[in-house]
Design brief:
Order of helices and strands of chain B: HEEEEEEEEEEHHHE
Number of helices of chain A: 2
Strand content of chain A: 35-45%
Helix content of chain A: 10-25%
Largest sheet of chain B: 6 strands, mixed
Shape of chain B: elongated
Distance between the termini of chain B: 51 Å
Order of helices and strands of chain A: HHEEEEEEEE
Shape of chain A: elongated
Distance between the termini of chain A: 50 Å
Oligomer: heterodimer
Strand order of the largest sheet of chain A: 3-6-1-8
Radius of gyration of chain A: 23 Å
Number of strands of chain B: 11
Structural class of chain B: alpha/beta
Radius of gyration of chain B: 20 Å
Structural class of chain A: alpha+beta
Chain lengths: 137, 202
């Protein structure tokens, strides 16, 4: 019984030691993403439509993140720019998803907000507090 | 010279022909693949029955630029429907799980397009045939919507009539420029803003 306890302790120590070794602290190689999620951060609760510009290479297959949203897009491959309109009773969070070709990194992409309309159709003059973010879903 | 009576008869015949051009098109089994698809036309309502072991195809000839609107009638089962290009590639999908009952697609090239209906609701051993129907139509307002969207996406108002732009702005926020608020107002006015209902737009 005592031998078994010692063996268990030994294996536990070996396990901890190996976990503390170089192999455990090396992060896995980042794989190339094939899809991106575009999120909207908003200071308002009554957004009704947005125009967003997404910059980055080889973007395709843009889809609204919610079936309650309508999304329209235009890809300008010459400038690696995608113009995106999303209409709906928008909430902060996921706005749309896109596919990207392999070989690119998240840092290759950026999104900026161009226009926001309230659900009353008025155009917001002040876009402070709005922020777009891109992540790998 | 035609008599008033024959002229009236001609008008009646034209009206009858017009009525006949939009009709209910029942499925013609077998229509389980693209080659045997039941032929339908723009303006038709297609109707059939489907169970989990069945798939129904319909073929419809569409011209480039058509603003297709495919609207499914409410169903008491999980009915999926897809719109496919002439090569069989899926262009839009009405997923019952997302409660999508309308597909809107701008037809890129003239050709024979396909509508595919399936259902996944019932257990594999239970194969009751469930009825469905879908309307193949177009919304004239969607043509203008397409132009407005393109103008906003491209920043080019050249394709839009100046009077129409002013009308859109008055309908929207009246700030003197065409913007996404005016787009939203136009969509609502034309019944195209159906958020929460589930619309897929290609």
């Amino acid at each position: 019984m005592e031998l078994r306890t010692r063996l268990v302790s030994l294996f536990a120590l070996l396990g901890i030691a190996s976990a503390c070794g170089e192999g455990a602290t090396t992060p896995p190689l980042p794989s190339s993403p094939t899809a991106l999620r575009i999120d909207l951060e908003t200071p308002h609760t009554d957004d009704g439509a947005v125009v967003v510009t997404l910059r980055g290479p080889d973007v395709s297959n843009l889809q609204a993140a919610s079936p309650a949203y309508l999304a329209y897009s235009r890809v300008d491959s010459g400038t690696s720019e995608v113009r995106l309109i999303v209409v709906g009773d928008l909430k902060g969070g996921a706005l749309a998803t896109v596919s990207i070709a392999p070989g690119h990194q998240l840092s290759d992409y950026s999104a900026t907000i161009q226009q926001v309309a309230a659900r009353s159709d008025s155009l917001r003059a002040d876009l402070s507090g709005y922020h777009m973010s891109i992540s790998v879903p | 010279m035609a008599s008033p009576r024959s002229a009236a008869l001609s008008v009646l015949l034209i009206l009858c022909a017009t009525r006949v051009s939009a009709q209910t098109t029942p499925e013609q089994e077998p229509n389980d693949d693209a080659g045997t698809a039941t032929t339908a036309r723009m303006g038709d309502t297609i109707a059939g029955t489907v169970n989990p072991s069945d798939v129904d195809y319909y073929a419809v000839a569409l011209a480039a630029g058509t603003q297709l609107e495919l609207i499914a009638a409410p169903a008491q089962f999980c009915r999926d429907f897809a719109f496919l290009d002439p090569s069989g590639n899926r262009m839009a999908f009405g997923n019952c799980m997302d409660n999508i009952d309308t597909l809107r697609v701008t037809i890129p090239a003239t050709g024979r397009y396909l509508i595919r209906v399936t259902q996944f609701d019932d257990a594999p051993r239970d194969f009751p045939l469930r009825p469905y129907s879908l309307h193949i139509g177009t919304n004239p307002a969607a043509v203008d919507l397409d132009k407005v969207v393109k103008a906003l996406l491209g920043g080019d108002l050249a394709g839009l009539d100046a009077a129409f732009v002013r009308q859109l702005d008055r309908l929207g926020n009246g700030n003197g420029v065409l913007d996404v608020g005016d787009l939203r107002a136009y969509m609502r006015a034309q019944g195209l803003l159906v958020t929460g209902k589930g619309v897929a737009w290609n």
